[in-house]
Specification:
Helix content of chain A is 23%, strand content 35%. Chain A has 588 residues and is an alpha+beta fold. In chain A, helix 5 packs parallel to helix 8, helix 6 runs antiparallel to helix 7 and helix 7 packs antiparallel against helix 8. Chain A is elongated and about 155 Å long. In chain B, the strands form 2 sheets. Chain B has a 5-stranded antiparallel sheet with strand order 6-5-4-1-7. In chain B, strands 2-3 form a two-stranded antiparallel ribbon. In chain B, helix 1 runs antiparallel to helix 2 and helix 7 runs antiparallel to helix 8. Classes of the chains: A alpha+beta (588), B alpha+beta (284). At the A-B interface, helix 3 of A face helix 1, helix 3, helix 5, helix 7 and helix 8 of B.
């Protein structure tokens, strides 16, 4: 798109009204919001007033500046009156219907305003987008586009002409002839269309891309060229062939028909024609060949590719049967065609052969060739590719070598049956009890999932234990109890020998006494500790008994008077009775 | 005396009911197997295939040797799809393959694969890509030994962690600093084995369970855009290609080639490698 101009037409000074002000309705409308350069668009402007006389309705005005981007082909003013059935009021409308031909690409906002007494009322604004190349201001019609005098005259008289033509009227069989059919319009016509298309009997045809519409100026007349058909024709027989005319419907009853075209088709010359030559091989071509590797083992496939490239009806060419060396099995090729070009048909046609060498050694693939008729030089020519050499590795199959036969191009399993490992022959099939493994996927999954779940549960249990478990006091008490139990066990164990017995009893009693006395009793000499115990509510008898037992232990430990086992048993019983009584805390 | 007679009668009935039919069945299997072997020696691979199919039908479960001989018979007959299917089953550890069976099966699979690629190239069908080292990795990740290893690592990690927790809560006598360090290292190691190989093993198991592996049996199977013979054919799969079954529906299976290409094929045209029983022989 050239120069993207954005206008707002009909935006007026302050004081402008709105699209529907009081009893005045001002409207603008277009038939299409996007057009190409050269296309038409209908612009409808209307001003409607209710209740008053029609003479007071202002006339719609063409939006200012619209002529710079559009050609105003035709404008028709109008007046109409109607009655509102519900309110019983009259409506007076003035209209202006215009046909515009887009000339400049860009985006345009179309609107207008009318003067009513001391005010101006503005219409709504409609957007129109024009795409494509700008129409030339002066004629640039080529000789090809330039209409003939007959067509020019028809354009003057009828405003429209259907024009068909070919790039050549004499051609060889199979040579391309380009056909074109265009619609020339000096005036605007609504929706011209084909009633009957042209006929191409005795031709192979191929669609070609169609140009964009364009506007030309010639001999003081501006006209629009709308391309209709572009087609490449390939004559299938010699002689005088005719392309039938096309009929175009114009408006409601108009008809126009293009002239039929006669083509003189010459046969391909017999002189120098290769044997079995196909008449479709007409054009200008080149050939190239390649393989996908330079060496290959015997029995391994490789791909041999031949590409035919050039101008002509390449989809129907017949390259014939390319000869291949012996000792190679070849399969039917995969064929792929890529077309190109806008005026001349042509492209690439690729033949991919899958081949399997069946003998070791150097394999020579002869240069393929393609015979064609060149219509420009009016002679037969040959396109050739280079020959290709391939190294085939490995030994030739022994069976074929022994028989001296050529390997046949049979089924794919014809090669190397002996390559299979033999069956295993035993008299009895080893039996296996069908056992499902214990660790199935489901069990494994649940087993794995349980690990983090248990870990989470353990962590939560630890946190709970720390928060809700025993406090320091309880822990100290448990520790003391444990220590006392150890001392009791030690005393029991040393009852017979007496070794360490009295020390354990003394420690046990001391422990119990301190527990009863509390922190205040730590470090006190024995008399003061006993006094403290008395003050803490321990009975005098227990105090005396404790003192006596401790003295007895001291005497035994330091005086080496351990006594007999029965004496130690009596001492232990008394000490335990005293300790349990003190532990209970009530005293006796 | 009466009790003793009853016991003997019961024992006799058990022998009659279980042992004798089992041996008769075993004879029939062996007879079919030897018949197949004799036919194979004569080069009559069609008869050999039928005999091996008879033996497979008589013997429940997987049997690597039978699968190997049957697959080789199919290979000689040029039925690459069924040859691949049975030779693949011969390499499955659940069939108890010996080293000889494994080696021969892999050798024949290589030859069959070569034929399959050739046929695909000539007929324009789509074939799966050859097995790569990545496929071997996935296969190794599915090994049961890895499952046991990761499971044991997880539970050992749990035990060591519980022991450490008891230490921290003071429920046991405090360990030395050296013991704590060793326990930490063991925890990290076990946790790594549990997490990384465990995740990979689970991923491999899931892939195998949700999309089981199968072999295309028919020489050229048309894959359609939907389940039904009236649906449009999207591409043709070469028999013997390895595919994954991604969906099932009313006699049709949606299969996926390793490259991601998917299509619906009739259920009878593919054989799942995961099923215990073998696929039936082709209709005559």
């Amino acid at each position: 798109m050239r120069g993207r101009g954005v206008w707002t037409l009909g935006i007026f000074l302050s004081g402008s009204g709105i699209a529907s002000a009081a009893d005045l309705d001002v409207r603008a409308a277009v038939s299409r919001t996007q057009v190409r350069v050269g296309d038409t668009v209908e612009l409808s402007l209307s001003v409607t007033r209710e209740g008053r006389g029609g003479g007071d309705v202002p006339e719609p005005e063409m939006p200012a500046g619209v002529e710079d981007a559009f050609e105003v082909a035709n404008c028709m003013p109008g007046v109409r009156r109607s009655i509102d059935m519900f309110r019983g009021e009259q409506q007076h409308t003035r209209t202006l219907e215009c046909v515009l031909i887009a000339e400049k690409p860009g985006e345009y906002s179309l609107g207008f305003a009318v003067a009513d007494a001391d005010r101006r009322v503005q219409s709504n604004v409609v957007e129109v987008r024009v795409v494509g190349d700008a129409a030339p201001a002066v004629s640039s019609a080529t000789q090809e586009d330039a209409p003939s005098p007959e067509v020019f005259e028809r354009l003057r008289q009828q405003g429209i002409a259907v024009v068909s033509g070919v790039d050549k009227t004499t051609a060889f069989v199979g040579e391309q002839i380009t056909y074109r059919l265009d619609l020339y319009e000096a005036r605007n016509f609504l929706d011209p269309h084909f009633r009957s298309p042209p006929t191409f009997k005795d031709f192979l045809t191929q669609e070609l891309p169609v140009d964009e519409p364009k506007v030309e100026s010639r001999g003081g007349m501006r006209f629009r060229i709308r391309p209709g058909i572009r087609r490449a024709l390939f004559a299938q027989r010699a002689g005088s062939l005719e392309i039938g005319g096309a009929e175009v419907a114009i408006g409601l009853r108009g008809r126009q028909r293009s002239e039929p075209i006669s083509i003189e088709v010459k046969p391909l010359p017999a002189e120098g024609q290769p044997t079995g030559f196909s008449p479709n091989n007409v054009g200008q071509y080149s050939l190239r060949a390649s393989i996908d590797r330079t060496s290959v083992p015997v029995g391994e496939p490789f791909t041999y590719t031949v590409v035919l490239e050039g101008e002509g009806n390449i989809e129907v060419v017949d390259p014939g049967d390319w000869t291949l060396p012996e000792g190679v099995r070849r399969y039917d090729p995969k064929i792929e065609t890529k077309l190109r070009g806008t005026t001349e048909v042509g492209g690439e046609r690729t033949y991919r052969f899958l081949m399997i060498p069946e003998r070791a050694g150097t394999l020579e693939i002869a240069a393929p060739h393609f015979d064609y008729f060149n219509p420009a030089r009016e002679r037969y020519e040959v396109a050739r590719a280079e020959p290709i050499t391939l190294e085939v590795l490995g030994d030739a199959p022994e069976l074929d070598a022994a028989k001296g036969t050529t390997p046949s191009a049979g089924a794919p399993d014809a090669v190397g049956d002996a390559a299979f490992a033999p069956i295993i022959a035993v008299d009895r099939v080893p039996r296996r009890r069908p056992e499902a493994p214990w660790l199935t996927a489901r069990r494994w999954f649940y087993g794995m999932l349980a690990v983090p779940l248990f870990a989470l549960a353990g962590w939560i249990g630890g946190v709970a234990w720390r928060r809700l478990g025993p406090d320091d006091r309880a822990r100290a008490k448990a520790l003391a109890t444990r220590r006392r139990r150890i001392l009791e066990e030690q005393a029991q164990q040393t009852l017979e020998s007496g070794e360490g017995f009295h020390g354990a009893i003394a420690s046990l009693l001391q422990e119990v006494a301190l527990e009863r006395a509390g922190a205040e009793g730590v470090g006190l000499p024995r008399p003061r500790l006993l006094d403290l115990l008395e003050r803490r509510g321990m009975s005098e008898d227990d105090c005396r008994a404790l003192e006596r037992l401790l003295d007895a232990c001291d005497a035994a430990r330091f005086g080496a008077a351990r006594g007999t086992a029965s004496e130690r048993r009596a001492l232990l019983d008394e000490a335990l009775r005293l300790a349990r009584g003190m532990k209970v805390g009530g005293g006796r | 005396m009466i009790r003793r007679g009853l016991a003997l009668t019961l024992l006799g009935a058990l022998l009659w009911g279980f042992v004798l039919p089992a041996s008769a069945q075993a004879d029939a299997v062996d007879e079919a197997f030897v018949r197949g072997h004799d036919a194979a020696q004569r080069g009559d691979w069609g008869t050999a295939r039928d005999a091996y199919e008879d033996a497979v039908a008589l013997l429940p479960g997987r049997n690597a040797l039978l699968a190997y001989n049957l697959g080789t018979a199919y290979a000689h007959l040029g039925d690459w799809g069924r040859a691949t299917y049975h030779l693949m089953r011969a390499t499955d550890f659940r069939g108890g393959p010996t080293a000889g069976v494994l080696e021969s099966a892999r050798e024949n699979l290589d030859v069959v694969r070569h034929k399959i690629e050739l046929q695909a190239a000539t007929e324009g069908t789509i074939v799966d890509r050859s097995a790569t080292s990545w496929d071997l990795v996935v296969e190794a990740l599915q090994a049961p030994i890895l499952g046991w290893l990761t499971l044991a690592a997880g539970w050992l990690w749990l035990l060591v962690a519980a022991w450490g927790q008891r230490q921290r809560l003071g429920l046991r006598s405090h360990s030395s600093r050296g013991q704590g360090g060793v326990a930490g290292a063991v925890l990290v190691l076990l946790g790594f084995v549990y997490a990384v190989p465990g995740t990979l093993h689970g991923w491999a198991l899931r892939a195998d369970e949700t999309t089981p592996e199968a072999i295309v049996l028919d020489p050229s199977t048309e894959a359609r855009e939907g389940p039904g013979p009236h649906r449009e054919v999207e591409f043709r799969i070469q028999g013997g290609s390895r595919v994954r079954i991604v969906a099932r529906g009313s006699g049709w299976i949606r299969v996926r080639l390793p490259g991601g290409l998917e299509g619906w094929v009739p259920e009878r045209t593919v054989g799942s490698l995961d099923s215990v029983s073998s696929v039936p022989p082709p209709p005559t």
